[in-house]
Amino acid sequence: MGKYDNIKRELLAEKERLEERIKELDHYDLNKSMSFSTGELSQYDNHPADTATDTYERGKDIALFEHINQEYEDVIAALERMENGSYGICEVSGKEIPYERLQALPTARTTIEYSKENVIARERPVEEDVLKSFDEFNFDNNDNETEFDAEDAWQSVAKFNDNSMVFEDSSLNNGEELIGYVEEIEAFVSTDIEGYKGDENISIQRNVHYDHYMDQLDRLEAGDDI
To answer: Model-level pTM?
Structure first.
């Protein structure tokens, strides 16, 4: 009786199981188009969320199919090593792989010291090479910059979770941060298409910004903290 006979029987049984599994799955219909799988002749009129679900399911099927095929290839490779006499020998160090490890993982190619499972992946998503933090596009400390920056975008979206959105005060947030203008009076004073020609042609827009500005003046006159 050979040293690895019991393990060989396990590998042959696993090979048969995987072959049946692959046959049952019929390649997850990956050899057919997504339109065939979903029954949709066109994705044109589908909601993006429905299309995203179909795409996710297709991606999941691909991953599962690749995983099963990888398991099958590992079993075949282990059986081939048994045939050529290299089974149980570490492919990196050339040392004998402990029998207990082969019992636990019959397809093992290396000793535990050189196992890929012991390697912690250090790769980061390629998107991180171009994505920056909010500070990269934050112009709050630049008095000459009126750009709607990344922080402003986040704050505008976050407001939907706090209070009902009203158009006329959509650029006036709780932090009293100036968005889209440098001086606060710019939010409610205006001139015509000819531009500034003197104080007499300046118009005052009595909007929420004007009310806010006047309220600040009243509080200053009253000696209140702003």
So the answer is: 0.48
Cα 126 to Cα 130: distance, rounded to the nearest angstrom: 8
Query: 89 - beta bridge partners?
Result: 96
pLDDT of residue 37: 65
pLDDT of residue 182: 63
pLDDT value of residue 43 = 65
**15: its two tokens:** 């090979």
Dihedrals phi, psi of 66, to nearest 5 degrees: -65, -35
Distance CA 138, CA 61 (A): 42
Sign of CA dihedral 90, 96, 97, 102: positive
- For 89, the 3-state DSSP assignment is strand
Q: Where are the alpha helices (DSSP H) in the chain?
A: 5-25, 34-38, 48-84, 99-104, 150-158, 208-221
Tokens of 96: 């004998």
Check residue 169 and give its pLDDT: 47
- Cα–Cα nearest to 26, from 75, 76, 74, 64: 64
Distance CA 147, CA 138 (A): 9
User: What does the buried/exposed string (b/e) look like for 4-31 if buried means 16 or more CB atoms within 10 Å of the residue's CB?
Assistant: beebbebbeebbeebeeebeeeeebeee
Residue numbers of the chain with a pLDDT score lower than 50: 1, 165-174
Torsion angle in degrees (nearest 10) through CA of 70, 71, 72, 78 = 110
Closest to 148 (Cα-Cα) out of 43, 108, 156: 156
